[in-house]
Amino acid sequence: MTARREASAPPVLPGYAHVRTLGLGGFADVFLYRQDLPRRDVAVKVLLAGSLDDEVRARFQTEANLMAQLSHHPSIVTVYQADIAADGRPYLVMEYCSRTGLAERYRTERISVAEVLRIGVRLASAVETAHRAGILHRDIKPANVLTTDFGWPALTDFGIAATTGQGGGATVGMSIPWSPPELLAEHPRGDERSDVYSLAATLYSLLAGRTPFEIPGGQNGAQQLVARIERAPLPPTGRDDVPAELHAVLERAMAKVPELRHPSAAALGRALQQVEADLRLPVTPLDLLDDGTPHADPAPSQGGTDVADATRLRSIVAVPQPEPVRGDDDATRVRGPVTVQPQPAGPGFLTPPPPPPEPAPVGEPDVADDDDTRRSRTVAAVVSGVVVLGAIVVIAAAALRPGAGEPRPGDTDFQETGGSAVEAVVPSPHSLEGERDAAGNVTFTWVNPDPRPDDHYLWGVVTVQGTSRPEVVEQPTVTVPAAQSGDEVCIEVSIVRADRRASAKPAQVCA
C-alpha cells in the first residue's frame, strides 16, 4: 500500500493567514487561509515545488484564466486572485466551499433522486456556460464538484480544460471511470458531448454509490474499466427509487457513440428538468445567460419624445418554476423572471375589465333604480369578477406550465415542440431482424413504434472493438454486404427525430 505523502509547506502570502490543509493533489495542494481584507476564508491552491516544469505552469495559468472567465456562474467556483508566492510557487485564491463535496458524499450517503436531479440541472447549466465560452472541461467527476455554503454544487479544476476548437485531443490527467470511450481510444478526440457523458457518469455515481462500470468485489483496474466503458451496456443503479425515465436519460447521455447523446449540456439539463416535472418535483432553473437574440426596439417616438430615451421591452431567457410549498428548501431562492414579449393591443389581447358603474347619488331613489336595475348591476359585478379570475388563472397556468419561458426557437439548443420543456424519450426500434441471402449479404429490418415526419435511422455495425462509424438511412432497412458480415454480424439502430433527438437506448441484434 502506498504511503500517504505529507502536505507541502504552505507559502507565506501577504494579507493571508494559513489555517489548515484542505486537500492533496498530484500537482498541487489546497490550503485554507483567512484573508485580512476583506475578511473571509478562502481556499488557496498551490503548485508543488517538484512540479514546476513549463507544461505544468502553463496548465496552472490556463486554469486560472478559464476559471476567472467563468466565475460569474453560480455553479462554478469563483477565482479571486492568481499570483506567484515568494518561494516561486504559483497559487490560486478561490472561493472556499465549506460543505462536503460530492467525492466524499457519493461513497457514504444515499443521495435522494430529487437532489441528484437538482445537482444535475445546475451542473448542466455550468457546463453549458463553459461550452458557450468555447471551453471543454474534460475532467468532470465527483471530486471536481464542491459544495458551496448554501448547498449549491460548484464545478472546479479546469486544469486540463481545452478550447472547443482543439477538440479535446489530449488526455493528460483524465479520470478513466467517468471518461467517454472516444477519449480512451488510441487517438482520442472529443467535443461538447464528451463533457455530457462525464456529467451523466457523475450523476450515475451519485445514485449508485459507485462509478458507472465498477463491479463491487470484482476486478476494477484500468484495463477492465476501459473494456467495459467501450463495450458493456450501462448497468442498473441498483436502486428501486430511480425512475426508468431517469435511467433512460443517463443511458442516452452515456451512449458509446457521441452522435446518439444529447447534443449539448443544456439539452441534458432540460431532459433532467422533464424528469423533475414527471415526478411532480419543483423544476430546477437552468442558469443560462441570454444567448444574444436581438431585442425588440421600441415603437416610434410620439409626442416629441426622443427615441433614444424610450423604454425598451427586453426579452429575458428564463426557465421559471412553480412556487414551492412552505418549508421547501428552495423557498428563499430568488425566482427567475418569466419571459414577456412586447405585444400590440388588438383582438385577443388581455385587457382589464371595465370599472364598476358609479354608485347612485344619495337622496331620493331614481325611478329607474328598481329591482331589475339592481339585479343587472349585480350580474355586471359578478361578470367582472369572473373576467379577473379568468385572467389570473390564464397567467398562472402559463407560468406553471413546464417549459414556460424556455429559450425561443432561434436558440441553437432548443427546438419548439408544442410548448413542452422537453419532449418525451424517443422510443427504440422493435422487431429488429436480420436475414442472410445466398451471397452472404445480411439485410436487417425493423419497426418504428411511433413514426413521425422526417424520422431517420442511425445504425452501425457492433464489433468487439465497439460500434463502427454510424450511418443515417431514411427507410427502416439496411443491408450489410458479405465482405463485412463474416460468420455473424451485429448492428444497433436508433430512431432520430427531425430535431436531432435520438432513441435513449439503441436496439441491437445479431444475424
UniProtKB/TrEMBL annotation:
Pfam families according to UniProt: Pkinase (PF00069)
PROSITE patterns: PROTEIN_KINASE_ATP (PS00107), PROTEIN_KINASE_DOM (PS50011), PROTEIN_KINASE_ST (PS00108)
Lineage: superkingdom: Bacteria
A single GO molecular function term of this UniProt record: protein serine/threonine kinase activity
InterPro entries (alphabetical): Kinase-like_dom_sf (IPR011009), Prot_kinase_dom (IPR000719), Protein_kinase_ATP_BS (IPR017441), Ser/Thr_kinase_AS (IPR008271)
Keyword Metal-binding attached: no
Ranges for domain Protein kinase: 16-273
Enzyme Commission number(s): 2.7.11.1
Keywords linked to the UniProt accession: ATP-binding, Kinase, Membrane, Nucleotide-binding, Serine/threonine-protein kinase, Transferase, Transmembrane, Transmembrane helix
Parts of the chain that traverse the membrane: 379-400
Disordered as annotated region, ranges: 286-376
Compositionally biased intervals (Pro residues): 350-362
Binding site for ATP: 45
Record bears the keyword Zinc-finger: no
Protein name stated in the entry: non-specific serine/threonine protein kinase
